[in-house]
Every structure is written in C-alpha cells, then in structure tokens.
Specification:
- 29% of the residues lie in helices and 19% in strands.
- The chain has six helices and eight strands.
- By secondary structure, it is an alpha/beta fold.
- 40% of the residues are buried.
Length: 232
C-alpha cells in the first residue's frame, strides 16, 4: 500500500452522540484532528422512533465551526426540510429512499439547494432500489443498523451489501462514495472498510465512547481504518 493510499477513508462525527455538557471542547478536538464532517441526524419520530436536533440548534453549531456538515434526514416528508439548513460548498444532504414520494425529484431539488446529494437505505432495503438513481447521487449511505436509536447491534448482512454496492459503482464507472452508519465500532471498522466504505459515521461505539478520550478514540479509529485498507 503506497503512502498516498493510506487512510483514504473519511470520518463523519455523529453529533447525536457528542457529550452535550462539553460540546465546545469536543468540537475543538474534532477540528484539531481534521474530522471530515459533522453528521447531523434529523429524526421526526415517525420514520424512526426518536427525536433529535432541529435546524436552529444545528445552525448555531454551524456558526462556530469550519467542519463541513453531513445532514442525514430521517423524516417522512424530507422535502419540507430542504430549505431549513444552512449550506456551504461540500456539505452533504442525505434523504432516505424509503420515505421519499418522488425520489428523483427530491434529489434534484437537494442539488439545486447547493448540497452534495446523498441517498440512504435501511438494512432490509435491496440495492435494486438504487437502479435508476445511482447516477444522480454523490453518496449512498448504507444503514448497518435500523434507524433511530444509538448503540444498536450491527446487522451483519449489510457488510455484504456494501461489497455489492462497491461493485455496482465500479461497474458503472461512477465516483459515488459509500457512507456506513451504524455500530461503527473498532471490531467492525476493518470489515466495513475492506468491503468498500469511503466514509464512516463515528458514534457511541467508535468515536464518542465512554471509556476513551475523544482524542484517543479518533486515533484508534484511524488505526482500524488502516487495518481495513490493507485488506482491500
């Protein structure tokens, strides 16, 4: 593995898992270690059984960091939220295939808002759902747990899904990136990366862990990423 190939996988920090009593300090640590994205889960309590942050809280964070944003919309009417969030070049806006009434139209609208475009699929959703929209997206987010709550167990079949998706992207000669979201733990990261993940959403099992400092967790994640890259 050449030097330029080393650690090409990006990290998106799941903000629903941040230590809310120490947000300023942790945000500074994420910036210090050049974390690639802040991952914002926007959950409506209907599509997924939880509520998370609204646009006012997210936009207030945005005003105090230069890290790009990665919006993950888990809502039954995602089109109602397209204009709610601030956008800077490079930000990602991801909506679920399962909850969009007209997915192609919604993806076009997201791009017109200035975002990079992402589509997410749940563990039980077949890759065939992407057949006619894969060319339209910059990122596919593969859920490796069922959406909603943090701390769930990995659905192991999803690793195979990542492998198949990577093959689809290569066969179509696309530059689409694969994000993996759900139980991105030290044990699971190598197999996720080996399967083809380009972006890992670091949450309670990998980045914001209870038994390590945030700085140590970041370094450990990079070690696990490099282990997976060797296996590609």
């Amino acid at each position: 593995m050449s030097t330029e190939d080393k650690d090409t996988v990006q990290i998106s920090a799941s903000m629903m898992c941040i230590d809310w009593l120490n947000t300023k300090e942790q945000l500074a640590t994420l910036e210090k270690h050049n974390i690639d994205y802040l991952h914002w889960d926007v959950v409506d309590g209907r599509f997924a059984p939880d509520f998370t942050m609204g646009s006012s809280i997210i936009n207030s964070f945005r005003a105090n960091t230069k890290i790009q944003s990665d919006y993950h919309i888990m809502a039954e009417e995602p089109s109602n939220l397209f204009d709610s969030f601030e956008c800077t070049p490079g930000d990602v806006f991801t909506i679920h295939q399962e909850c969009s009434r007209n997915l192609h139209r919604d993806l076009v609208r997201v791009r017109r808002c200035g975002f990079r475009v992402g589509v997410a699929i749940n563990p039980a959703t077949s890759l065939s759902a992407l057949d006619y929209i894969l060319e339209e997206v910059d990122i596919v987010l593969v859920m490796t747990v069922n959406p909603g709550f943090k701390g769930q167990e990995l659905v192991p079949q999803c690793i195979r899904k990542v492998e198949k998706l990577k093959t689809m992207i290569r066969d179509m000669k696309l530059e689409t990136k694969i994000t993996v979201d759900g139980n991105v733990s030290y044990d699971n990261i190598p197999s996720m990366v080996a399967a083809g993940a380009d972006i890992l959403v670091g949450g309670s099992s990998g980045l914001f862990t209870s038994d390590r400092s945030l700085e140590d967790s970041i370094l450990k994640m990079h070690d696990c990423i490099n282990e997976g890259l060797v296996q590609r």
